[in-house]
UniProtKB/TrEMBL annotation:
<dbReference type="GO" id="GO:0022857">
    <property type="term" value="F:transmembrane transporter activity"/>
</dbReference>
<feature type="transmembrane region" description="Helical">
    <location>
        <begin position="305"/>
        <end position="328"/>
    </location>
</feature>
<feature type="transmembrane region" description="Helical">
    <location>
        <begin position="280"/>
        <end position="299"/>
    </location>
</feature>
<keyword id="KW-0813">Transport</keyword>
<feature type="transmembrane region" description="Helical">
    <location>
        <begin position="349"/>
        <end position="369"/>
    </location>
</feature>
<feature type="transmembrane region" description="Helical">
    <location>
        <begin position="12"/>
        <end position="32"/>
    </location>
</feature>
<feature type="transmembrane region" description="Helical">
    <location>
        <begin position="213"/>
        <end position="238"/>
    </location>
</feature>
<feature type="transmembrane region" description="Helical">
    <location>
        <begin position="375"/>
        <end position="396"/>
    </location>
</feature>
<keyword id="KW-1003">Cell membrane</keyword>
<feature type="transmembrane region" description="Helical">
    <location>
        <begin position="52"/>
        <end position="73"/>
    </location>
</feature>
<feature type="transmembrane region" description="Helical">
    <location>
        <begin position="109"/>
        <end position="131"/>
    </location>
</feature>
<feature type="transmembrane region" description="Helical">
    <location>
        <begin position="143"/>
        <end position="164"/>
    </location>
</feature>
<keyword id="KW-0812">Transmembrane</keyword>
<dbReference type="Pfam" id="PF07690">
    <property type="entry name" value="MFS_1"/>
</dbReference>
<feature type="domain" description="Major facilitator superfamily (MFS) profile">
    <location>
        <begin position="18"/>
        <end position="400"/>
    </location>
</feature>
<dbReference type="InterPro" id="IPR050189">
    <property type="entry name" value="MFS_Efflux_Transporters"/>
</dbReference>
<keyword id="KW-0762">Sugar transport</keyword>
Length: 409
């Protein structure tokens, strides 16, 4: 009789602690990135500049990250992965200290530049580190665990820094982020293994070759992220003018958007390991359906008897939008790494660069269409782009693979 050895779970206490540190790093980084959104009026008043100028901090951040990611990933290709992550966290901490002490807008923008320079590198190494902590069969779940930090930044981090900015001042909120970043840096140094770089460990030389699969996935990412941010940039206007919710209830729906995203990431983590293409396609289908629904609601003339129905349908669409859009990034980044198992960090860097370009393009296209044509056309544009990405995901072959070894320490 053959005795089957017991299966050892990869989710040990140590691995759980390591993934928690990575999720905390993602949480702090995203919270710092979007802090100007919640503190915008306070920063503008304190530095005596317009709110529009403060708003450029986000667009400038995305531009710098997009332009520097691939070069920095290549420059640090032979560094141990822990060192690369620690450098990005130190840059984040220093940038927050500079920002908190900024006497004017120019110095504040300079502090943000340092943070943005390291942003792409951080996202290029953090998911591969998480994947290498677990067996290949759990790569999607490890990536999703890291991305929990992103979801929490939207649900907890941004509202918390906005509240701190109103109560104590935006500088104190930035100091709190700096202290948290320093604490996470120390925890990462203590808990994470050194992790030699894949290229250095393999003894390979020269520039790694990335195949057509990574190029295809990066293009799909660019199209999908552009479509998402065409609409997401103006999600407050959509909730107010399409769904018909304003005031304190709007904040609750935004929170529901974020909570739905966290739940979707947890629910889709295991399917991502088992059926990656089906998981990505399903998320895109839900996202496209949500935006199409909102576009139809926006085009419908409002009548008093249908206001309640519109509000319910619109609320469901917003929640599903949050669930699908938040679940997609860990799916896409895991798939990007699997296209290049010999250089997952480089593949991840190209994915991150495509993502950042998508953020910029989406915000610019969304603003242009919104101003020139209106809200309905803007949401419709987003729906068309997401549908195009969905059709592309259905059509491609050998891109969403699950049997790639990414976990060697």
């Amino acid at each position: 009789m053959t005795v089957t050895p017991p299966t050892v779970s990869p989710w040990t206490v140590r691995v759980a602690a390591q993934l928690t540190v990575l999720a905390a790093a993602a949480f702090i980084y995203v919270t710092a990135e979007i802090l100007p959104v919640g503190a915008l009026p306070v920063i503008a008043a304190d530095l005596n500049v317009s709110e529009g100028l403060v708003g450029t901090l986000m667009a400038g951040y995305a531009l710098i990250a997009a332009l520097t990611t691939v070069a920095l990933v290549r420059l640090t290709a032979r560094w141990p992965r822990r060192r690369a992550l620690l450098v990005t966290m130190v840059c984040l901490t220093v940038s927050q200290v500079i920002s908190a002490m900024a006497p004017n807008f120019a110095v504040l923008a300079g502090g943000r530049v340092l943070c943005a320079l390291a942003h792409g590198l951080m996202w290029s190494v953090i998911a591969p580190i998480g994947v290498r902590l677990v067996p290949p069969s759990h790569a999607g779940r490890a990536t999703a665990a890291v991305y929990v930090g992103t979801g929490l930044a939207l649900v907890v981090g941004n509202p918390l820094t906005a509240a701190l900015s109103e109560l104590w001042g935006w500088r104190q909120a930035v100091v709190a982020v700096a202290i948290a970043a320093a604490a996470v840096t120390l925890a990462a140094r203590v808990l994470l293994p050194l992790m030699p770089a894949e290229r250095a460990r393999a003894g390979s030389a020269g520039r790694p070759v990335h195949g057509r699969g990574l190029l295809t996935l990066s293009l799909l990412t660019l199209i999908g992220v552009t479509g998402h941010f065409v609409a997401y940039t103006f999600i407050v206007a959509i909730i107010r003018d399409v769904v018909g919710i304003d005031g304190p209830h709007l904040a609750w729906l935004l929170a529901g958007y974020g909570v739905a995203g966290l739940a979707a990431m947890a629910a889709m983590a295991r399917p991502l390991d088992l059926w990656p293409k089906a998981s990505v396609t399903a998320a895109l289908v839900v996202l496209a359906a949500s935006l199409v629904t909102l576009a139809v609601l926006s085009a419908q003339p409002r009548a008093g008897v249908t206001t309640g129905v519109v509000m319910v349908i619109g609320t469901v669409a917003i929640v599903l939008w949050g669930a699908s859009s938040t679940a997609l990034p860990p799916m896409l980044q895991t798939s990007a790494m699997r296209t290049s198992p010999e250089d997952p960090d480089g593949a991840s860097g190209r994915y991150v660069a495509a993502f950042q370009v998508g953020i910029m393009t989406g915000a610019l296209v969304g603003a242009g269409v919104y101003e020139a044509v209106g809200l309905t056309a803007m949401i419709g544009t987003a729906a068309v782009l997401i549908t195009a990405a969905m059709c592309g995901a259905l059509a491609v072959r050998d891109v969403f693979n699950r049997s790639r070894d990414l976990s060697t320490r």
